[in-house]
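step: validate -> pass
step: tokenize input -> pass
step: predict -> running
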Amino acid sequence: CIRRVYDIGRPIYQKIETAERATQPAEVAVIAANTAPIDGATTPVLMIYSPKGGTGKTTTAINLAAALRRELDSVTLLDADLQMGDLPIDLNIRPTATLTELIASSRPDPSLLPSILQAHSSGINVLFAPQKPELSELITGNMMINVVRALKAQTRAVVVDTASYLTDHNLALIEAATDVLLVITPDLTSVKNAKIFLELAPDVGLKPDQIALVINRATMPGAIPTLQIEKALKLTRTY
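step: predict -> pass
step: emit ->
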């Protein structure tokens, strides 16, 4: 059955590969146009956050980083879900180095980044969370801010995957982020948690124009209509 399905889909895969090969010169040209010296002050930091697990937050972070990589010559994906990060599984990479190597001191040494970042086949570089949950206790919010600053100086965009709780680490990352993508699913629990987060946002220094709403699985059966969610959450940037 598996072979039969594969044979049925093979012509489609071949067309996709042909189309990708045909677009490679254009992609190279785009990348070449973005090889100017990196100005860390203008590097965007996109924090992907959800106040509820199971919304597709990590998948959104990976796909966003991969999409940005098609436009920019360097994109870094940071796994800030320090206790239970899923990036190694989702990217099918075995980490050889993690955040723990970078935060031996309160101020990470930027020169260590090239040896700690791992390349993925999509072209993005990944900085993995500690492989043991107890090691996350060694990382402070201030360390995470310094890690982000070090990454900004060496890449054109930083995408941060986060845990679902408002830990000290996440509050610090909110301070460092240029934009927060709030990922939800169209169900009551997810919308309720998002509303609570948005009510808290001004207290943690987040402005409305820094927050974009991402509704995952928006057309699933029984979903709350998108317009109704936008009205309840009062956000103008919705994807």
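step: describe -> The two ends are 37 Å apart (CA to CA).
step: cleanup -> pass
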